[in-house]
Predict the 3D structure of the following.
Amino acid sequence: MAGKMKAALMMGPGKIEMGELPIPEYGDDEVLVKIKNVGVCGADLEFFKAGRIGGWVLEFPHVLGHEPAGVVEAVGKNVKHLKSGDVVAIEPGKACFKCPTCLEGRYNMCPEMVFMSVPGVFGAFREYLAWPANLVFKTMSGTDTADACLAEPLAVGIHSVSQSGIKFGQSAAILGSGCIGLCVAQVLMAQGISEIYITDHNKVRLDKAKALGVKHVFNDHDVDVVAEINKLSCGVDKVFECTGSQKAAAQSIGMMKTSGVMVVVGMYGEATQPVDLNGLLMKEASIITSFRYCHNYPAALQAIGTGTIKVKDIVSHRYMLDQLQEALTMNIQNKKDVTKIVIEI
């Protein structure tokens, strides 16, 4: 399919211009998707602000965005499970699917991972995207692309809950009620976990958690969240640390019960973080990690399609593609008012 497409081109830190790129060619095992909606992730904000995240340094122009959904425009000759017109969500990480890690089933840890919107890989804030068909998932009938693009953060939530090994009747605390924390909360509730505590210092996000059905919400600017949660629960079984904050990491250990588990979901700005090993030791507690997702997109799309998890309720703002600079700037400057932004292409 020859021709040009609109794209939001990042020209430098804090600067996005609308421009054109060639419509990408697609291979025999790939799908060409007309992108309809893309969610804005915290990584997009960090790249937009500084042009880098740690050792990842962008070259310009660049295209951000890794939470896309759209409609299949065309398919390669080897693709049998998708056809033109299918509404789809796109998993943004291309693993090799050949290395020992991938063959063990843990493809999210592939050392050859190519992830959408990182340096050298254009992202999804554009009209068309060609992507391997095995990473393009058809939605349930009636699913809107504005909801389907949220399969990405929901898959993060599903994977973290799976990693935790939480069982029916156990308790959980979630530190951070942003998009990921709210997804974790909804996944827990969908699995029958009723004793959930969520903390943040953002009233808008805490109010969103309440509206979604979380009964115990705490503003850590107003109360000692560790003391309050321990008072109500005598410690929780699982703590999901979704902030990437050193303060929250310390709080996690304090609110776990004996043999509790801290699940690290948030990314930390500093490579090295102090850990209270004595605190862990005295509780014989554990720390595990959860990185992105692995085989979780089908479950995420099923939960969205059936209405089991209401991702639409997480969204606070919507913008058009040509308003991307305005959307990212607003998110950075008014973080307290934002839970999730979705861009319409």
Observations:
- DSSP finds eleven helices and 19 strands in the chain.
- The CA atoms of residues 47 and 53 lie 6 Å apart.
